[in-house]
Write a structure and sequence with these properties.
Helices cover 19% and strands 18% of the residues. By secondary structure, it is α+β, with helices and mostly antiparallel strands. It has one domain (11-69). It has a three-stranded antiparallel beta sheet. A hairpin with a 2-residue loop joins strand 1 and strand 2. The termini are far apart. 18% of the residues are buried.
């Protein structure tokens, strides 16, 4: 399971990660988290901005990458 979800199976397909909620907060700034990254030492949560900012560095050590940032676009234009 040492693959990033955007390049292979999503974490949801593996049945390992529940959907992020408004209670899940970004570890960098405290905004609502839309990205969950699992690494060997635990779990990191990021808003869409910080997830994209750190994606390149974290991809080398991430065991999984769960990205729900597309939910930000669901209500646009409504």
């Amino acid at each position: 399971m040492s693959q990033i979800a955007t390049n292979a199976q999503s974490v949801d397909e593996l049945g390992a990660a529940p959907q992020l909620t408004a209670l899940d907060r970004c570890d960098s700034c405290g905004a609502q988290a839309y990205i969950r990254v699992r690494v060997a030492t635990g779990e990191l949560l990021f808003c869409a901005h910080h997830g994209k900012k750190y994606e390149e560095k974290l991809s080398a050590i991430a065991e999984s990458w769960h990205d729900e940032s597309s939910r930000l676009l669901e209500n646009q234009g409504a």
